[in-house]
Amino acid sequence: MRPDERTTRSVRYLLGLLEEPAARRVCHRLRMPFEGEVGPTPSYDWDLTSFLNQQAPGSAVLWMLQEDDPEVNAELYTDALPVGLRRDILEGVSFAPEPAKLAEPVPVSPHLWRSPWDWQQNATDVPVADVLDALYQVGGRKAFRQARAAAARIRNEHWPAVAQAHRDVPLPGFARWTVSVRADCPADLREEFGSHAKFRHRVRQAGIFDGPAEYLAAAAPAAGLHRHGGGAHRRGRHGARAGVRGRTRGRPCGRARAAW
C-alpha cells in the first residue's frame, strides 16, 4: 500500500535530514517516488491559529509576533492572547528584536477580528503605575487570579518599569510567576525571578523556551520533528531553522532506517 500524497510530501520533508543515498533507499522501501513536492503547503489561516492555540508553546506566539506581519498578527489576535499584547497589536508595536525592530508602526490587518469581550477589555489603556499597583496588591484566596489578570495588562513599553519596580521591591510570589510565564517577558527579568533548575523546569512546562533549539531539545526525536515541520512556521524562520533541524541528524530517525 502506497502512502497518499499528503503523507508522501511529509515523508520527503523528513528525509531531507538524511544523505541522499539513504533517503532514496527509504523511498524505495516505502514504494514512493523520491522526486516530487516536499513538505506541507504553508497555511496562514485557521490551521495556523488552531496549531498555535492547541499545540505550540507560549513562546511560539512571541516568535510569530516577531515577524511583524499584519496577517500573522490578525491570526494570533484572539481573547486567549494577553490583553496587553492585543493592545500593542492594535497600536502597531513592533515585536522584532533589535536591530530588526521597525521604525514605523506595524499596519493592522483588515482581517483582524475583535470579539465584544475584547472591545470591552481594551476600551481604555491602563497606565503602568496601575499595573504595578495591581501586581503588588496580589493576595488572599484569589491571589493567582488577581496576578494573572494584572500580568495580562503588561504592555511592551511597560517591561523596563516592571523590572525596575521588582529590583526596588520584589513582586509577590504569584505575581512573579504570572509575569515570568508571559511569552514576551524579557529573559534577564525572568532570570531575576528564579534561576534554579526547578524554576526553569516549571517555566518550560508552561511553554516558555529560550528559543527553537531549546524547544526541540526538550522533545523526544519523533515529537521534535513534528514540532519542527508544521505549516505554522513562517517563511522568515526557515533560514534560522536549518541549523536547528540538523541537530536531529543521527537521532533515531537516521539510525534505524529499517524502522521506516
UniProtKB/TrEMBL annotation:
Bias-annotated ranges (Basic residues): 226-254
Superkingdom: Bacteria
UniProt-annotated stretches for the region Disordered: 226-260
Protein name, as recorded: Uncharacterized protein
Organism the protein comes from: Kitasatospora atroaurantiaca
